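pipeline/complex-builder :: batch 7 item 3
reading input block
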Amino acid sequence: MIELSKVSKSFNSAVKAVDNIDLKVNNGEIFGFLGPNGAGKTTTIKMVTGILAPDNGSILIDGLDITKDPLKAKKQFGFVPDSPNMFLRLKGFEYLNFMSDIYDVPTKERKEKIEMLSNRFEMTKALGDQIQSYSHGMRQKIIIMGVLIHNPSVWIMDEPMTGLDPRAAFTLKEMMREHADKGNTVFFSTHVLDVAEKICDRVAVINKGKLLFCGKLGEMKAHFKVQGESLEKIFLDMTEHE
Amino acid sequence: MNKKLLILTMALMKNGFSLPKEKSKKIKQILLFVVLALSLLPMAYGIITFLRITYNGLATVGEEGVLLSLGIAISAFVIFFFGLFYTMNTFYFSDDVENLLPLPIKSSHILGAKFIIVTIFEYLTGCLIFLPILIVYGVKSGAGVLYYVYALLIFLTLPVIPIVLDAVLVMIIMRFTNLAKNKDAFRTISAVIAIIFGVGVSTMSQRFVLNQGAGQTQLGNNSLVAITSNIFPASKLGALGLINHGSPSGLVYTGLFIVVSLLGFYLFLLLGNKLYFKGVTGVSVSSSSKKQISSEQLSRKSIRSTVIKSYVLKELRILFRTPAFFINCILMNFIWPIIILIPLFTQPKSRNGIGAIIGLLQKEGITGMVFVAFFGAMLFVSSSNGITATSISREGENVFFNKYIPVSYKTQIMAKVIAGVIMGIVGMLSISIVAVIVLKLPLSLMALICVTSLLAILFSNFVGIIIDLFNPKLHWDNEQKAIKQNLNLLLSMAICVAFGGLTIFAVIKLNLNLIQVVVSLVAVYGLLDSLLYLFLKKIGSKMFSKIEY
């Protein structure tokens, strides 16, 4: 579970990148975080994962405060950042082993996990090569595998579908569903409405740092209809800033 | 200068040297420059005093021109040596060529712009070595305005020939690495070969010069000029131009020097068009083996280890596998013993000198001095690899990774320190082996020196990481900038050199014997290291947590 209450963050104290956000992502649900570029999605995710410190408010992950008890809280989640260009000089299996050590995964379990994940993401032939030889999509896959290897209860992903081929995107969506169905939490950002529509149980829409909406997709359509605008129109409005 | 060439040079320069946008970071950067400049002042004073004394000594035998000719030859050599790294970095590791090729720019402009950037870098080297010589000679000989005009012209042209040699050498070697499958490894290996080749060529020519010079030192009237300038043939013209600035021949020599340099540059453009672009394109592409790892292999390779061990291993793997990091951080540890060894094997005369040194080292009462000299040298050597002084900077835009993993900042800092200490020890051992074999230092003494020097290595690594935590250079677009254009490395070296110098000075001043030296070094550096450790544990972790990209 992820709980944000009254969270704000500003850079250079002029503009608030995130403005007084309250958000609760429940166990057992896939939660989509929607908004155009520069809306505050990545800043929010960076605060949730402990990369940035919020100016105000509190963030709890499975009940643990990310600012007060950072190490324990960080063990609860796995994070897929928006750029997969990391550790390019490590070989695939070296990266997975490094992540396993960081998250304290026992030898037997990590081997099984590496085999299972590399089969599922069709990466078995790539593990012996350096990550810099991978395509963008393969890099994205190895980062996702590194996150899933320690079996975190909470998944946090920043634009995880970017660069994935249709089959890998399908696999990831399938795995997200399985994870949530086991009573875990999946929180991910996207600006592709289609993805959100297909897999999310609930969504939140953020723009200019403020939360515009939080609820089920059906409710969202109804919500904006009341205000006289179609869903497509709303998203076109949002994305025209890009 | 051609307009497009100027624009391109400016763009590449800006890309490399821009100050941070935020005011506080800008101030920090400028402050760093000032501290660095101040820390170099005592050295500059020392150099000028040394040059003045040398001039006076040479003037009594009518050989004052040697100061200039030697100055030009040595400057050209130093420029050549550093130029190997600069040309390799600017021409091959800056990863910008593939962005430039699709633009409507002539290939000679790309070559020219890169050449100018290296030349500007080298003016800084020239300022440190050549400028003081020019000024001291000018002032002491009471030279007129014309001397300074010639001096300026020669100062500006001097780097051209050495850089042309560097560039041609590097281009020839790099041209053929494209055939290789593993680009990183081949770039690294070819860089190593280029360095060894470069150092070899210059020592050979040095040997040649010294052998010739041995028979002719008594000639007087600046006749040494001709001999010492053999290292870089054209530099002779420069020296003669300056010495004869009073007569028309000075103008001819200076003119010729500039013409020869321009011809060299033209040759570089010609060769560059043939060699450079074929060698550099595809440098950023790397191939893969696409081999399946068997279940047994996976079992062997996926064994659980502690967080700190895994982290240190990750640091070292990246250092060894990234060519820019390998050349600057890893190779550095093996360069010092080679530099000690070169004169031994190339110059017969210095072997006698070594005999004298060995004799001196065997004397009673000098072991304390040997001890502290090695300790001071280790402070310098282990700071010169820059592993810890750039350890946060090297993370670059991926520094966020360090912040979301469940590993405390203290652990991460210590893992980075350990990686630096390991390579520091490797450097120390390589020097120790040379010292035991060549200088015939007793093994027991060397062992004691090594154990004590661990404190020096620890000290330089603590200093390095504190400086990098204070102001990491995270904004870089290719790996060499994280190190080459990182003032943190220079600052931590300056601090370690200052501490090393102070320590040696104190031991000489207090006239300590071996036991006193060991006890005081252990006490003082043990205390300093403990304080720095506590600082890192308490404040370093906080500094790390506040770092944002």
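note: Chain A has a mean pLDDT of 88.
queue -> next item
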